[in-house]
Design a protein that fits this description.
mainly alpha; 10 helices; elongated; single chain
Length: 214
């Protein structure tokens, strides 16, 4: 995936379907240890807006992650993107919980990204136009962005891409996939209590609203 255009939406979606990851419950490490329903509900409600953050990210880092993930999974008319699905909220919550061991990884990665953009374009990532943001992302993906030590440019890109996919398609109880945006995008039904004979025999797309797992 070297060209950052609307085609990457198809790439990400097909990758998820091909690996069976769209169900999402297995995407979060130690998910079994986090199945306290009351805690999940409280976390989801506290960070219900696609624009909310604060569990880990400061304002500047949140803006950078929002812009970066939206270029990875851009919105289109009638099709939600990373911002619509609350991917920032998902990553923010994960870094304050299951992914707490990646906090320094993100801090260093974002600092190196900012330094690279300022050196290359005299502006931070969030102030670049979409074309230059895509150029930066491509440089990271291909390991051509200078100044990255730890994490490396490719490690940073691959991690954010993975977390973007998780935030788009994991169960909404983890703070992403807002309003089932990702599941609706791929036609995933979620945790339906039962499928009727008509459902099983139908060749049409499943039409009932997705249901979150508990």
């Amino acid at each position: 995936m070297t060209e950052h255009n609307p085609g990457r939406r198809t790439f990400l979606v097909r990758a998820l379907i091909g690996t069976g990851a769209v169900a999402g419950a297995e995407l979060v490490p130690n998910a079994g240890a986090q199945n306290n329903a009351a805690q999940k509900e409280a976390n989801t409600q506290a960070h219900s807006s696609a624009d909310r953050h604060g569990a880990f990210f400061n304002h500047d880092d949140a803006a950078t992650v929002t812009a970066f993930t939206e270029r990875l999974m851009p919105g289109a008319p009638g099709k939600p993107g990373a911002h619509d699905a609350g991917v920032l909220n998902y990553i923010d919550l994960a870094l304050s919980g299951a992914y707490a061991d990646l906090q320094d990884f993100y801090r260093r990665g974002l600092a190196q990204l900012d330094a690279y953009c300022r050196k290359s374009y005299s502006e931070p990532f969030v102030r670049l136009d979409s074309a230059r943001q895509d150029q930066v992302i491509t440089a990271l993906e291909q390991g051509e962005a200078a100044g990255f030590t730890w994490p490396t440019a490719q490690e940073f890109f691959n991690t954010i891409r993975t977390h973007t996919m998780e935030g788009m398609f994991a169960d909404p109880i983890y703070g992403g996939n807002k309003d089932f945006a990702g599941w609706r995008l791929v036609g995933f039904p979620g945790a339906q209590p039962i499928f009727t004979r008509t459902d099983l025999e139908s060749k049409q797309a499943f039409s009932r609203a997705p249901i979150a797992g508990l």
